[in-house]
Automatic annotation (TrEMBL):
Keyword vocabulary terms for this entry: Transferase
Domain Galactosyltransferase C-terminal: 166-228
One Gene Ontology term of the molecular function aspect: transferase activity
Domain Glycosyltransferase 2-like: 4-158
Protein name in the entry: Uncharacterized protein
Pfam families cross-referenced by the UniProt entry: Glyco_transf_7C, Glycos_transf_2
Gene3D superfamilies linked to this entry: Spore Coat Polysaccharide Biosynthesis Protein SpsA, Chain A
CDD domains: GT2_Chondriotin_Pol_N
Organism: Epilithonimonas lactis
Cited InterPro entries: Galactosyl_T_C (IPR027791), Glyco_trans_2-like (IPR001173), Glycosyltransf_2 (IPR050834), Nucleotide-diphossugar_trans (IPR029044)
Length: 269
């Protein structure tokens, strides 16, 4: 199995730097790292170029112009450039536990997709980590929430991931994994969804309609979310209505997805 790690980002190079630091310290590295960049300025590219030069690892930087929040579209473009047969997807505002990729590889199974969790780092602790360019955080740290999501117990996590659900509930695009082949079959993310909210759940609902089951990770695949104010471009309610429609229609493919992406993006590697 070849794993492509896709990291979405937009104009927060300081957080992306911590994210990439944690990636480079993985006990099991992905075959490639792909940055899905929704139109960041040059400072983000500088960080990525620095990591590529320092660590000599395969890092692709997929970038398109900033034309509003188009997370679904840039993720499609990133998957289109992926060479791996299994996609692990995160956001660029998280720090990964050193066994994050190893855990996801152990959880991978046919006919399923994986939904992970995250521990939330508070405002003060996040500011300290960013200032010191540090990735030193755990469930024992001060100023963290959802502490239980930072506990790793390999035996228990295999028990929990054996449970299968035909539901898209609770899916987080920041900690999600799936077969590239399955992603292609449902035509990837829906490019028509604008603004952030539930684009990940919409994809997951089409996975379920296609016949895949959701497997929830607990006590493994741990990540720590760096605090930031919530965006005011939320379209959650509007997108949830689309998901309710999918539950009824049982559609598996979106009409404007992976197959319809334009060649209007840059690939740096």
């Amino acid at each position: 199995m070849k794993i492509s790690l896709i990291i979405s980002t937009y104009n927060w190079p300081e957080a992306l730097q911590l994210c990439l630091k944690s990636v480079m310290r993985q006990s099991l590295m992905p075959e490639e790292i792909i940055i899905a960049d929704d139109g960041s300025t040059a400072s983000t590219k500088e960080i990525i170029d620095r990591f590529r030069k320092t660590y000599k690892w395969k890092i692709k930087h997929i970038w398109h112009e900033d034309n509003g929040f188009k997370l679904a579209e840039i993720r499609n473009k990133a998957v289109a450039q992926a060479s791996g047969d299994y996609i692990v997807q995160i956001d660029g505002d998280v720090i990964l536990h050193r066994d994050f990729i190893r855990d996801h590889k152990s959880f991978a199974q046919e006919n399923s997709f994986v939904k992970g969790r995250r521990l939330m780092i508070g405002r003060t602790k996040s500011a300290t980590l960013l200032k010191n360019k540090s990735t030193s955080v755990s469930f024992l740290s001060t100023d963290v929430k959802m502490r239980e999501h930072g506990i790793r117990i390999p035996f228990f996590n295999l028990i929990f991931t054996s449970k299968k659900e035909k539901s898209a509930d609770g899916v987080l695009g920041s900690n999600m994994a799936f077969s590239r082949e399955d992603f292609v079959k449902v035509n990837g993310y829906n490019n028509s969804l604008k603004g952030w909210g539930a684009e990940d759940k919409e994809l997951a609902q089409r996975f379920v309609n296609f016949g895949l089951v959701k497997r929830k990770v607990k006590y493994g695949a741990i990540q720590y979310h760096i605090y930031h104010p919530q965006s005011d471009n939320c379209k959650h309610d509007e997108q949830m209505r689309e998901i309710e429609h999918l539950k009824i229609s049982k559609n598996t493919r979106c009409e404007n997805g992976l197959d319809e992406i334009r060649k209007d993006y840059m690939v740096y590697e």
